[in-house]
Amino acid sequence: MRRLRAIFLTPAYTVTVGLFLIPLAIILVYSLLSRGAYGGIVFDWTTENYRRLFDPLYGAILLRTVVIAVITTAICLALGFPLALFISQSGARKNLYLQLVMLPFWTSFLVRTYAWMFLLRDTGLINTALQSIGLIHEPLPLLYNDGAVLLGLVYGHLPFVVLPLYATLERMDKSLIEASADLGAGPWTTLFTVILPVSMPGVRAAALLAFIPSLGAFLTPDLLGGGKTVMAGTLIQNQFTTARDWPFGSAVSLVLMAVVMLMVWRVVRTKGEGLV
Amino acid sequence: MKRGLAAYAVAAYLFLHLPLLVLAIFSFNHSRFTVWQGFSLDWYRLAWRDPQLAEAAANSLLIAVVATLLATVIGTLAAWALWKRDSPTLSASLYTSLVTPEIVTGISLLAFFQWTFRFLNVRLGMHTVILAHVSFSIAYVVIVVLARLRTLEPALEEASLDLGATEWQTFVYVTLPAILPGIAAAALLAFTVSFDDYVITSLVAGVDSETLPMVIYAMARRGGNPVVNAISTLIVFALGALIVASERLQKR
């Protein structure tokens, strides 16, 4: 019995160690080395790559990434909570409504981002429609700005938020709402003094599920932000492709990863349960 | 308040579904511009005849099929082992791989492959893409299969062992058939994740391994091309069907 379990674990261990942990270890080593004159890596130990993160130029990018992720999370929670509340009160149609939220989330992230390019660009649907009814004469600059990136991030991560919020609302003791109404509270008072405080664990989990992917986003700022909105993800990609500064790109990656792990660890610890 | 909530929900569902729906409608537009000029299948015909798209689609399918097979086998075995007794190291690693930003996974794999190429005479290509896909889809397989295993009665395996079957026979003849729908659901999920990936794939792909998402990305960047609308619509509906199938199987 022990032997079969050991045999069954071996391939997964091999892949996880070989294709996940060792690559991360290589990035860790690279982040402490120097960049060569032509973009290669020189075995010259340094902490310079981490110190460069405090350079105003890069510090601003990291700060901007955090701000965009925080705003995305806030909007996602504000939009997702009423939707989750609606689903949890829908009786027999609950599962259907939930599936309708989750379905677009599983189908191609790239295509969903592209759909917004199709709507927002100068020759896109919104500008063409507004021009044809004569409301505007020049196309509005809807694409390639911070607003478009924010929109894309909210659109992409809203389903992530609805699921945990729905789960908490579903588990909530419904007699609490009745008790609140019996004691004379109106629906809004009940919402803010009973439902919201009771569902805080779900709100925390939901916030995490929106914050983490927004923090590490690459495709959305890249496609909807054009070259303009630089976030941590685009900075990393840039260092590994055009800038050819792998040590600095590695340092940014590890800092990003450290922030993500810290957030996950805090939420998992307060919830007291693992994933698998 | 109840009515207001319902009205809000309608608006929210429109926000979630309208962009893809509009894209799908305009993929059947006769005009190359975003003005409706009648129904046509021109863009689908053009997409079908495009040799670059055909090659990318073939690459994507091959990569997704091979990666799914490997990830499903490896993930199912690991899920069974974790079901017997949790391995905190493996669980934590899989958990971490799920929350790691794709761009970080991508560049770390790129750095790893470039490093191994110093000792091996290979280059980036289909094999590196497949390895990357296996690595990031195992966690999904483990989660889905483990959820299925947890619904099993432990007495089932005990009875088989008591009746003299070996551990291996019990796994093959008792456990495996019982969790088959879960395994199929996991495979469909792994296929979807693999087929759709752009960020990691673009970093570890070579010249001979351009995938469909990479072509779509390049076309989207270049600007208005209705062929992208057509191919995107096909992908959304194909992947959507797979996901619905996967969810049905998970509930069975």
Characterize this entry briefly.
The complex is a heterodimer of chains A (about 280) and B (about 250). Chain A contains 13 helices and two strands. Chain A has helices spanning about 1-30, 50, 55-90, 95-105, 110-120, 125-130, 145-170, 175-180, 185-200, 200-215, 220-225, 230-240, 245-270, and strands spanning about 35, 40.
Structure, explained:
The complex is a heterodimer of chains A (276) and B (252). Chain A has 276 residues and is an all-alpha fold. Chain A has two domains: 71-229, MetI-like (MetI-like fold, Orthogonal Bundle); 231-271. Chain A is built from 13 helices and two strands. In chain A, helix 3 (56-88) crosses helix 10. The longest helix of chain A has 33 residues, at 56-88. Chain A is globular, with a radius of gyration of 23 Å. The two termini of chain A are 22 Å apart. The model of chain A is unreliable at 272-276 (pLDDT under 50). With 252 residues, chain B is mainly α. Helix content of chain B is 79%, strand content 0%. Chain B has helices at residues 2-26, 42-49, 51-84, 88-99, 102-116, 126-149, 154-162, 167-196, 199-204, 212-222, 226-251. Chain B is globular. Classes of the chains: A mainly alpha (276), B mainly alpha (252). Chains A and B meet through helix 1, helix 3, helix 4, helix 5 and helix 6 of A and helix 1, helix 3, helix 4, helix 5 and helix 6 of B.
Fourth-level CATH superfamily of the largest domain in chain B: MetI-like
Mean pLDDT of chain B: 90
User: For this entry, what is the oligomeric state of its chains?
Assistant: heterodimer
**How many domains in all of chain A?**
2
CATH architecture of the largest domain in chain B: Orthogonal Bundle
Helix content of chain B: over 70%
What's the level 1 CATH class of the largest domain in chain A?
Mainly Alpha
Helical stretch count of chain A?
Answer: 13
H and E string of chain B: HHHHHHHHHHH
Overall 3D geometry of chain A?
globular
Beta-strand content estimate of chain B? under 5%
What is the count of structural domains of chain B? 2
CATH topology of the largest domain in chain B: the name is: MetI-like fold
CATH homologous superfamily designation of the largest domain in chain A: MetI-like
Element-level helix/strand string of chain A? HEEHHHHHHHHHHHH
Class inferred from helices and paired strands of chain B: mainly alpha
Count of distinct strands of chain B: 0
Tell me the CATH architecture of the largest domain in chain A: Orthogonal Bundle
